[in-house]
Design goal:
Elements lengths: L4 E2 L11 H7 L2 E7 L5 E7 L5 E6 L9 E2 L19 E4 L2 E5 L6 E5 L6 E2 L9 E9 L4 E8 L8 E8 L10 E4 L4 E7 L5 E7 L10 E7 L5 E8 L10 E5 L5 E5 L7 E6 L4 E6 L17 E6 L2 E10 L2 E8 L4 E5 L5 E7 L3 E7 L6 E7 L6 E9 L15 E6 L6 E7 L6 E2 L8 E5 L13 H7 L4 E6 L8 H4 L9 H15 L8 E6 L1 H12 L5 E5 L5 H7 L7 H6 L2 H7 L12 E6 L8 H13 L3 E6 L9 H20 L17
Parallel strand pairs: 1-32, 33-34, 33-35, 35-36, 36-37, 37-38
Antiparallel strand pairs: 2-3, 3-4, 4-5, 6-7, 7-8, 8-9, 10-11, 11-12, 12-13, 14-15, 15-16, 16-17, 18-19, 19-20, 20-21, 22-23, 23-24, 24-25, 26-27, 27-28, 28-29, 30-31, 31-34
Length: 667
Amino acid sequence: MSGRTTAPYGSWKSPITAEMVSGADKRLSGFAIAGDGRLVWIECRPEEKGREVLVKEPEKSEEKPQDLIPENFAARSLAQEYGGGAFAIKNNIIIFSNYTDQRLYKHSIGGLLPEPITPDFGGPSIRYADGVFDSHFNRYISVMEDSCESSLNPITTIASIPFSNNGEIHEPKKLIGGNDFYAFPRVDPSGKRMAWIEWSHPDMLWDKSQLWVGYFSENGEISKRVCVAGGDPALVESPTEPKWSSNGELFFITDRKSGFWNIYKWIEQKNEVAPVYSLNAEFTRPLWVFGINSFDFLEKNGVNRIICSYRQNGRSYIGVLDYEIGSFSPLDIPFSDVSNIVSGNDYFYVEGASSTQPLSIAKVTLSENLSEIKEFSVVWSSSPDLTKYKSYFSSPEIIEFPTEISGQNAYAYFYPPSNSDLQSSSDEKPPLLLETHGGPTWEARGVLDLNVQYWTSRGWAFVDVNYGGSSGYGREYRERLLGQWGVVDVNDSCSCAKFLVENGKVDRERLCVTGRSSGGYTTLASLAFRDVFKAGASLFGIADLSLFRAEIHKFESHYIDNLAGTEKDCFDKSPINSVDKISCPVILFHGLDDKVVPPEQARKIYKALKEKGVPVALVEYEGEQHGFRKAENIKFTLEQQMMFFARLVGSFEVADHINPIKIDNFD
């Protein structure tokens, strides 16, 4: 500790600025390998107001990646509002969904202008996602969402779009329909079969789904179909991610019997499924966006393997699976968190991160027998210049803490304050910012995130909670939230904060809470129904469950019923109906184009808190949807949260020069 200047927690000067955070908040939205073996990916660029750009890996590492589409195009699907699965590639031909009109476009790598292959319906009323090439019938097969008749209840199908040599545009043709939702249409190498996932209200895919295989007739229609998994009413499971090997074997992931998503194989002759490798770990994650790719095939010199990863005890493990004998050989790579994987013959690309490595894509080349790493190289990083700030980084500690249910524990990542230049006096405890993740069926992950380091390098403690109901820990843990949203998540968040206080980690009088989307709901509910936190920030969060239930889009229209309960339960659990119990300051941020959680949610509780006399502020952003994508808004949100908490509960002066916004009932 010698050589450090002593200063109060929260007042520390840090080189990790909000501007740096906003610039580093690049996201990935899928990747695939082009015909020449190089990677193509979609990156979201805050500096371009959140535009999503198709980019190709350069031929030489010292060269810059190549943008593939003109500046007036953006590769982003709005299917199910959350999108994903916006492009597919075959050789040097890309099919992608264009953001503004949601039409599908065909584009040759190195070509001039993309050409539309779907009709113009006068607006983005038809959306496409999760598509694949079907070379056998010279067409593209995609999930299609048609909202021409109803924006709240669009019709979802799997459709085919014929390719034309003369530029003629054809109407999409329905291949599969009748159910509420579809995903993962996947054509086998012979072009004779197609696998897909479907599910029905009131379930989400991770609650219960079905895997089907259909057989193509001579004219390309589905002539017959069989249910591979999810059809037995006595067996609750949620199959996902079907994928054909090069020799026509179907593999997929499901959580039957064990409650953990493991890899299985379909035995076509018997229409039976068999486990490939069993482990109390999660080999995939909930489908919030299309295009999840948790495993792929490695094939070289007659050696056939699966490259895959799994989550267990708060971290990811990656390895090679010999699916003939069911053995898993771990690979040691510098990622403790893995999302998507795509493979070539003896190499693969992996999207990952760690506590010292920001979100990145790495290329991993394997040995001849596909069992050892020959080379590991990062081909893309969300923040490539971070190493010079390493001395300011806080590393997460995985903590397990008791919940209010006897014998049940929950988990979190705790980041203590860290700054190589500054320290606090030994008798001071730091303020805490507790984050409640969105979803709520999702998972906080302990990786290098500048949104976190912004706080910890200024002398804040930060904790990211995986309350009961989070993914990553199996079905039983995930289902703790069924009927208990607004109870279990709130209790676990409060229990985590109290656990840190009792262990001498943080200051009881300076506990703050923040959350985005459903995490914003948990934040507001924690302030309304518990007396633990001293201030809160809700980012595009839910204040009125009844209103949310009435306006919610199709994908989540029954999700809230499963989580929150009856209409009366929704009323009772809505923070807007318990404003009289909120006595601490609240700041709200919302995008005016948000279709998932409309801005009226923030306006209602802002007005109610203002009338009650509670210190409150509301920030609204033109042109932002559900989640902020523009660099200037990401920066402003971070800075104003910091100033709000510092002024109202901090007992310190912020080192940065930030002009605070007006706080009603305070300024």
